[in-house]
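Reminder: ligand-aware prediction takes two inputs, not one.
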Amino acid sequence: MDVYRIYINKRGGPCSRHILRITEDSPQLRGFMHQTITKNPTIVVDLLADTNNTLLQITHGLQKDQKELPCKLFYDERGSKLFERICRLHEYYPTRTETAIMQQNVHDVVDLVGHGAMLIEYGSGSSSKVRILLDHLPEVAAYVPVDISKEQLFMAAQGLKRDYAELEIIPVSADYNNLFELPIIGKKVFHKLAYFPGSTIGNFYPIQAIDFMRNIADVVGPGGGLLIGTDLQKDTKVLNKAYNDRAGVTAAFNLNMLIHINAEFGADFNVDQFKHFAFYNEELGRIEMHLISQANQTAHIVGEAFNFKEGESILTEVSYKYTLEGFAEMAYEAGFVVIEAWVDPKNYFSVQNLIAR
Ligand code: AVI
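Here is what comes back for the chain with N,N-dimethyl-L-histidine:
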């Protein structure tokens, strides 16, 4: 029977460079747990179990004057499903607009990328967006989906294996905000292309976005590429609607963060006593998502008490919207040059091809 093998670093801990050498008897795998999961000869590497790091981020964030929580906490199982629903909402234009841009320009994209690429997708999730590239890119050397969720990686890799039998798929389970080393692959790699769709770059503060893209530039090396989706600045009304949908899915998604923290970190947030609030901050060019406390209240996390005044907010997410020029400047600072930016007719969204300098 074909198997997936998953190697979990038992040491865990925050960001550090872990070496992934992926053969069964490799000495680097000593001290790693080994689980056989399911079909197909594909290897999944889990770099870090960073529960402690996340807990620190939560408690530090709640000690700030403007309380904040890391937006990665949206994505437990329920949160990921809610996010999928958001992506299908009429008000939430980014997903369908990015897909349309890709569909209309895939031949140009592929011409620029060329053959023999190692395709590394950051935050690959269900790996659905990459299919349009895989359908058109000639001779992909390997597809390396990187995601924190092992379950999603397994499911996605299985699905892809069914449809792209010849493709070498090496999923890496890692927090892509941390440095990670690429797995070694069998075929010759002509160049590396990082793929970061979905405008998730907007969820980083600009300084973090530059650092993150700098890491990608290191990973792909000079001449390597980054294909990235970026949301663009537009009418405030359109933006406010996208993050305040009428069906309340975004509100449920936002509140789910507290449910997740209660379940995973033994906290006791009274979820009913918080309300979703999102608005476009024109000055800073970003959507801000907040949870507003509806009363004076206290929540406990690992024995520590956090007080909330009535009306006080927790900032749960920023979602920056860029101009093409502003993004090009940021990319340049991170070591990239924008080669091409494809946009939709309304100029709502862009897919950009960047080359590392
Ligand atoms: C994942 N990210 C790009 C989404 C966004 O639009 O910033 C997350 C999201 N938050 C609310 N709706 C969607």
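Residues 86, 94, 198-200, 202-203, 243, 250, 317, 319 surround N,N-dimethyl-L-histidine (CB under 6 Å). The radius of gyration is 21 Å. We will return to this case in the review session.
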